[in-house]
Amino acid sequence: MESRHRIHPVILARARELRQPQTPAEATLWRCLRNRKLKYKFRRQHPIYRFIVDFYCAEAKLLIEIDGDSHLEKEQIEYDKARTEYLENLGYKVIRFTNNDVRYTINAVVDELIKVVEKRIEELNTPHPSPLPNGERELEQPNEHHTQDQRN
């Protein structure tokens, strides 16, 4: 049985608080994503470990962030970069759009999301080839010191 990841109650409560009211950009994108309008299920204000992401597609392990003007400040850029790196090391893909992207080019944003989701699902469902024939594992090379100990 697969163990479920427990979300800290404080993070979970904060995620629920963030669902209302939405920013105008989040509301616009959510109208395009909700109820599987793009064929894939998305969640909004979804907790991932100690973070709360704007939108999440579990099937593609895709995190979508909508960034306002505050994300242009140096400290926020550094934080966003570290956060993205951390989440991508956990196997997620992070994609970011600005409020203006959503406000002025929503069709391009939706098209990009569809491409990214489909590519990610394909990547996640494609088995990685074994580097050795027939899936054989490379034999460990004995440590020289260990080999000498066995001869004595």
CATH fourth-tier homologous superfamily: VSR Endonuclease
Note the beta-strand portion. 15-25%
What is the mean predicted local confidence, pLDDT?
81
Determine the CATH topology. Answer: Endonuclease, Chain A
Count the E strands: 4
Shape call? globular
Lateral strand order in the biggest sheet: 1-2-3-4
Q: Which architecture does the CATH hierarchy give at level 2?
A: 3-Layer(aba) Sandwich
Major β-sheet profile: 4 strands, mixed
The total number of structural domains is 1
Radius of gyration: 21 Å
Structural class designation: alpha+beta
Residue windows where pLDDT falls under 50 for at least 5 positions: 140-152
> How are helices and strands ordered from N to C?
HHEEEHEHHH
Straight-line N-to-C gap: 48 Å
Number of helices, where a helix is a run of at least 4 consecutive DSSP H or I residues = 6
CATH class: Alpha Beta
Any overview of this molecule?
With 152 residues, this protein is an alpha+beta fold. It has a single domain (9-124), classed as 3-Layer(aba) Sandwich (Endonuclease, Chain A), CATH 3.40.960.10. 46% of the residues lie in helices and 16% in strands. It is built from six helices and four strands; from the N terminus they run ααβββαβααα. It has helices at residues 9-18, 24-33, 74-89, 99-104, 106-125, 144-151, and strands spanning 43-48, 51-57, 62-67, 93-98. A four-stranded mixed beta sheet has the order 1-2-3-4, sandwiched between helices. Helix 3 links the parallel strand 3 (62-67) and strand 4. The longest helix has 20 residues, at 106-125. It starts with 8 loop residues before the first helix and ends with a helix.
